[in-house]
Design a protein that fits this description.
This protein is an all-alpha fold. The protein is built from 14 helices and no strands. It has one domain: Farnesyl Diphosphate Synthase (Orthogonal Bundle). The longest helix has 32 residues. The chain starts with a helix and ends with a helix. Bound molecules: farnesyl diphosphate (FPP). The site of farnesyl diphosphate (FPP) has 21 residues, from helix 3, helix 5, helix 6 and helix 7. It comes from Kribbella deserti. This is UbiA family prenyltransferase.
């Protein structure tokens, strides 16, 4: 009987760890970067290494975020936070974050010193966000730095040139990161203000809903117009769709937040489709 209880507790802890890692963004970022690596022409083993490095980095950021925030999440009784709801201990989440961070270092450097350093700088930016920048007006900077470096993690690790990613790809992903930051915070605005989190989106208040699609839309323009070669009919149609989405969001105060997410999804598809232009 006691043994059954122990097994149940252990399984609950594993499920809690899975929920504490921010599974949605972790899976989304890992999949995106791995698919971009394939599209940029990295060899299969390199794509596996890229995916493993991004996965461990995202796990370390996700877990450390929940471990740092545990007291605040308890204060507002956030049912979606497994440490606050008692499903997993803070100590277990810190340990998992440390192991993931330690694994991320060799996995990143396996793509080369410069590529690995570019990725690890992004991971350091993520930890800096968790450890304090998220409560400052500069909360968007870690997102811009970390996402802006991701295309170069891919291209610096991909032969024969091992070059930095083109400026438009770095700028577009930095803007995508800023849009992701705003999009992540908008649904939690009330809880954040109640616990004293005063990052950039919280300072914008309700305007954050309107500002969120702007960096994403500028990223769309860059991804359509900046790579070499004509934008093509599909490119111009994409710009038209994004302009229409922006008009709906600006003119309809109750516009579903999913419309902003749709602009982000369009950027992600463009990034993957233009993957071959990353490595020239
Ligand atoms: C390499 C790379 C792309 C790195 C990502 C960089 C970065 C700044 C990540 C932050 C991710 C994160 C756990 C946000 C949760 O924020 P929160 O605490 O505001 O929200 P929550 O309430 O959902 O936990």
């Amino acid at each position: 009987m006691a043994a059954t209880g122990d097994v149940k507790r252990a399984l609950g802890g594993v499920a809690g760890l899975a929920r504490a890692c921010h599974p949605g963004p972790t899976i989304a970022v890992t999949t995106l970067v791995t698919v971009v690596a394939v599209s940029a022409g990295r060899d299969p083993w390199g794509c596996v290494l890229t995916g493993a490095a991004v996965l461990t980095g995202q796990l370390s950021i996700g877990w450390s975020n929940d471990a740092v925030d545990a007291d605040r999440d308890r204060a507002v009784a956030r049912a979606d936070k497994p440490i606050a709801s008692g499903q997993v201990s803070r100590r277990a989440v810190w340990t998992a974050a440390g192991i993931a961070a330690a694994a991320c270092v060799p996995l990143s450097l396996a793509s080369g010193l410069l590529a690995g350093t570019a990725h690890l700088l992004g991971i350091i930016a993520g930890w800096a966000y968790n450890l304090g920048l998220k409560s400052s007006v500069f909360s968007w900077i870690p997102y811009a730095v970390a996402f802006g470096l991701l295309p170069s993690f891919v291209t610096l690790g991909t032969g024969p040139d091992h070059a930095w990613a083109p400026w438009w790809a770095m700028t577009a992903t930095a803007l995508l990161g800023i849009g992701a930051h705003l999009a992540n915070v908008v649904p939690d605005l009330a809880d954040d203000l109640a616990t004293g989190i005063r990052g950039w989106p919280q300072r914008l208040g309700n305007a954050a809903r309107l500002v969120a699609p702007l960096p994403l839309a500028i990223a769309t323009v860059l991804l359509v117009v900046a790579p070499a070669g004509p934008a093509g009919v599909i490119g111009w149609l994409t710009l038209g769709v994004v302009a229409a989405l922006l008009a709906v969001i600006a003119s309809w105060p109750k516009a579903p937040f999913l419309l902003t997410i749709a602009v982000a999804a369009i950027d992600i598809v463009l990034l993957v489709v233009r993957g071959d232009a990353l490595t020239g």
